[in-house]
Structures are given as structure tokens and as C-alpha cells.
Specification:
Length: 458
């Protein structure tokens, strides 16, 4: 049917009759399109025609053509009827309208209640997402976050950032990490918005999550506030990180750390902690008897350079020919090797002893040569500096008209006047009339400098 525009009132009347006809013929989509063509922005006409789609339950057919702008905004009840029909027959279409329609067209609370009344597991995802969006429209952000978390939808992170919801996530920290650990930590590691103390408190119920968080926090926070917890967590979840952590941190109780390492039998960590506590003999015993690592023992003795440690290592090694040669190779420069050689029992079989002794003698000879070279360099420097001092002392000292006697404070030289007495000049630069130098026949030092030295002694 072609509608003629020349007679406005008649055309509208005919069009409405035609809409009725199409609805009776169950051609609902065509009827909806006629509504769009002839009703324009007439709110009352729209509301009258829309109700014709209610009885046959075909509000869905007209939903795409309903006016939704401020120029022609229908009664909220109209939009709610359309939403209810979608909720009953087409949940995906319902979610689509929730996303497309401005939220001010209808009463969000009424629609939320309708969802709860018609909630079913079959359409759970669509309904939860609809609830999340409706709660967001209402600014009930905490409820919206809970819906997204139930839905396991990562849109929750965008919602937190968009609406600055850092203060409402304190009790949702574990679900956020379960959803997406990386994105959750991007939020949780922002110390300005989420205090670490709150995160730690919430994660106490999940130690593995607490470990992940504190390990990540340590990379961005140098204060070391929770290092005391990291010792135990590294020991439990990633022992390979424990020793490097113990060496770089100073923010943990060392005795508690040692107790944890003892309970786990972490010997290298125990050695380090005992060394820090000054229990170096106990540390060396662990190296020798538990780790059985002579190279580590030698390095430990070199680090602490303690004679008692070296004696303990020698005593322990003398009974073990397998490690004795390694000790011979490592003690040069720290212990007199003769003391170790003297302790070797007559007839004791030591594999590789000849090679070790030869290397020891070569190393010792090389050390002696190095000391001789250093001594020669020092002597050369000494004589060079001594010669420079002698040259400086042999240089002449100029006396000008500006010089005054250090005793009488009169000029020592006057223009056009022949000096009446001799002048004495000391290497320190002080100038005197000869009669002004006290005990000049015996005094070998400047009187001014002598006084200053005496004052310094006092």
C-alpha cells in the first residue's frame, strides 16, 4: 500500500487503519515500519500504537523503531514493557537493548527486580552482564563489580579504572586475582590507591597469592616493609630466590630467618646467615660436613680471613686426602703452606700431591716475585720523591723589599740603603735580621714555625 502525503489527516488515519490490518495479518515487522514512517515525534500516537503490539506479544518487532531521543521520549513504562517481553522470550535481545538504550529511558530498579524474578541458570551469563550494566547505570558500582566477578568478565578491571573504584575492591582482591592475576596486580601495586597493608591482610587466607603479591611488590617498593614475610614465603614457594634475597635485603629478623632455613635444611642460606651473625665456625662446619664443598669452604675462609677458620679447615682436611690437594691449591696468600705440609702424616697417600705441591711452590714463587716487584717500585718512588725534596730545599729563596723580619717586623731590605746586618732566610720562607734570630749560632729552626709546632703539641 502506497500512502499519499497530500492529505495529512486522512493519510494518518488511513495509516493507522493499515497498521491495524497488518497486525491482524500478523505482519508485525511491516506494521512497525509504518509506525516509524507516519508517527514522527508524536509521543501520544506512538504510545497508542505501541500498545497494539502488546496483546500478540510482539513488542519485540517494534522495539528497533521506537523513538529514544529527547525529542520524543515515551513513557518509561513503554520501554519497560518491551524489556520485560525480551526478558521473557529473548534474553540475548534483552542484553542488546540494555547496551543500546540510554538508561534514563526506563526505571533501572524496576528492570533489576524483573531480572531477579526471572533469573535462570540457562541464561545466567546474559542476565549477570545485564545486572552489571544496570548497577553501573545506577552507580551501584560495588554490586556491578560483584556481577562481573560472578560472570568472570575482565570488564571489571576497566570498570575499576573508569570510575576510580579502588576503595570498594578491598574485599574482592582474591576474586580479582583469580580472574586475571596480571591485570589485578596492575591495580593492586598502585600504592597510592590500594595500600599494601590492606592487600596483605586480605591475602593472609591464601598464602600462595600473598607470595605472588609480595614478590611483585618487592620489585616496585624499596622500603622492605614486608621482607620479614618474604623470607618464609620464598622458603615455601620458590627456594631458589631465597639466598639472593637474604643477601640484598636488610629488612628481616636474621634469627627468625635462620630458624626457617634450619627447619628446611637450607644449608647455603644457613652458612650466609651464620656468617652475618658472626658464627663463622658453625658456618664452616656446615660447609665441611653438610655441603662437603671444599671450594666453598676455602672461599668462606678467604672472605672472613680468620686464622681459627683456616686452622679448622686444615684440621678437617688433613684426614681427607681427596680434599687436601684442593686446600693446598687455595691457601696461597692467606696461610703459610708450610704449616699444612708439616701436618701431613708420613706415608699418607694423597692423590695428586706432587702436582699440588709443584703448583703451590710455583704460586709461592710467583707471589715472592710479585712482592719483590712491588718493593722495587716502592723504593724507586721513595728515592724519586726524596730527590725532589732535596731539589726543592736546595732552591734559592728570593728576598724582596716587601719582606719583613719575622721578629722585629721591620723591612729587611730598604731601597738605596745598604743593609747594616746580615739576613737569614729559612726554608719555610720566614726572613730575619741576623741579630733578631734568638740563639742564632745554635738555633737551626725558624722561631715562628717552632712556636706553631709547640702550640699544636699542646
Amino acid at each position: 500500500m502506497e500512502l499519499m502525503p497530500s492529505h495529512g489527516g486522512n493519510v494518518l488515519a488511513v495509516a493507522r487503519l493499515y497498521i491495524n490490518h497488518l497486525i491482524n495479518q500478523k505482519e508485525y515487522e511491516a506494521a512497525a515500519k509504518i509506525c516509524l514512517r507516519v508517527l514522527g515525534n508524536n509521543k501520544n500516537l506512538w504510545e497508542e500504537e505501541v500498545f497494539k503490539f502488546v496483546k500478540p506479544q510482539q513488542l519485540r518487532a517494534v522495539s528497533a523503531y521506537l523513538p529514544t531521543t529527547d525529542d520524543c521520549k515515551l513513557d518509561p513504562h513503554v520501554y519497560e514493557m518491551v524489556l520485560y517481553e525480551y526478558l521473557k522470550y529473548d534474553v540475548k535481545g534483552f542484553l542488546k537493548l540494555i547496551k543500546e538504550w540510554p538508561s534514563h529511558l526506563y526505571d533501572c530498579s524496576a528492570v533489576i527486580n524483573a531480572i531477579h524474578d526471572h533469573f535462570n541458570k540457562e541464561n545466567m551469563n546474559e542476565l549477570l552482564e545485564s545486572l552489571a550494566m544496570l548497577y553501573s547505570y545506577q552507580k551501584s558500582y560495588e554490586s556491578a563489580l560483584l556481577m562481573y566477578l560472578k560472570l568472570q568478565n575482565t570488564a571489571v578491571f576497566d570498570l575499576i579504572r573508569r570510575y576510580d573504584l579502588y576503595s570498594v575492591i578491598h574485599k574482592m582482591i582474591i576474586p580479582l586475582i583469580q580472574l586475571d592475576r596480571e591485570r589485578a596486580f596492575q591495580i593492586l601495586l598502585d600504592k597510592r590507591r590500594v595500600p599494601p597493608e590492606i592487600v596483605v591482610q586480605q591475602l593472609e587466607q591464601n598464602q600462595e597469592y600473598l607470595y605472588w603479591y609480595l614478590d611483585a611488590l618487592d620489585k616496585v617498593d624499596s622500603r622492605g616493609t614486608f621482607h620479614w614475610r618474604l623470607v618464609e614465603l620464598y622458603a615455601e614457594y620458590e627456594p631458589t630466590k631465597l639466598l639472593p634475597f637474604l643477601k640484598r635485603s636488610k629488612h628481616y629478623p636474621i634469627q627468625e630467618a635462620l630458624d626457617i632455613c634450619k627447619s628446611k635444611l637450607f644449608y647455603p642460606e644457613m652458612v650466609y646467615l651464620l656468617g652475618q651473625m658472626g658464627n663463622i665456625v658453625e658456618a664452616l662446619n656446615i660447609i665441611i660436613h653438610k655441603l662437603q664443598n671444599i671450594e666453598m669452604g676455602i672461599d668462606f675462609c678467604k672472605e672472613h680471613d680468620d686464622s681459627d677458620l683456616w686452622n679448622l679447615l686444615i684440621v678437617e682436611s688433613i684426614e681427607n686426602p681427596e680434599i687436601l690437594t684442593k686446600l693446598l691449591d687455595g691457601i696461597i696468600g692467606y696461610v703459610n703452606p708450610a704449616g699444612l705440609v708439616d701436618k701431613i702424616k708420613s706415608g699418607q697417600k694423597i692423590p695428586g700431591l706432587r702436582k699440588s705441591l709443584t703448583k703451590m711452590l710455583c704460586d709461592y714463587r710467583l707471589q715472592v716475585d710479585e712482592l719483590q716487584i712491588v718493593n722495587n717500585i716502592q723504593l724507586a718512588d721513595y728515592f724519586s720523591m726524596h730527590a725532589e725534596v732535596v731539589r726543592e730545599q736546595n732552591r734559592g729563596l728570593a728576598v724582596s723589599y716587601d719582606n719583613v723580619c719575622a721578629t722585629c717586623e721591620h723591612s729587611v731590605i730598604t731601597k738605596d740603603v745598604v743593609p747594616s746586618c746580615s739576613i737569614m732566610v729559612f726554608n719555610c720562607g720566614h726572613v730575619y735580621h741576623e741579630p733578631c734570630v734568638p740563639g742564632r749560632h745554635k738555633n737551626e729552626h725558624c722561631n715562628v714555625c717552632n712556636s706553631e709546632d709547640e702550640d699544636n703539641l699542646d
